[in-house]
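SAMPLE LOG
Freezer: B-3
Tube label: C17
Construct: single chain, 153 aa
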Amino acid sequence: MTLRRVSGVSKMLGAVLAAICPIAFAQGPALDAPSRSIELTSSVIAPQPTYETHKFFDRENRILFVAVAAVNGADFAVTRANLQNGGQELDPIVRVYGRSTPGLAANFAAETAGTIALSYFCHKTGHHKLERIVSFVNIGSSASAVSFGLLHR
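STRUCTURE (predicted):
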């Protein structure tokens, strides 16, 4: 590519950016125009959030967290029983901890705690629907693992 072609491309890119850039069309106050001062009074009311806020440990979350703990406990019991009867852990992450019962219990306890922590993070960032979905996804995945484990004994 020649220098002339590069400079032509850069001129065209500059023209396109100037055409779509809103700052290029910004207007400021005229230099000789008097400035107006805007006074804020106490009658200005801050906008209220439109989403519904709730406490983190409300009734629905408590029920979801109990269900998460129960299904993860069932997943632990079925996985442990299958491993003791010669079964094989299919999840490569859990396979590392599946060699001992305390390690397996710690894995499922950490999964439960992680679900609650992720739900809390979503709650604090204002994603209240997502905070509930996190629990539903964990319940669904653990319930499917329990079903698979019971069917393949």
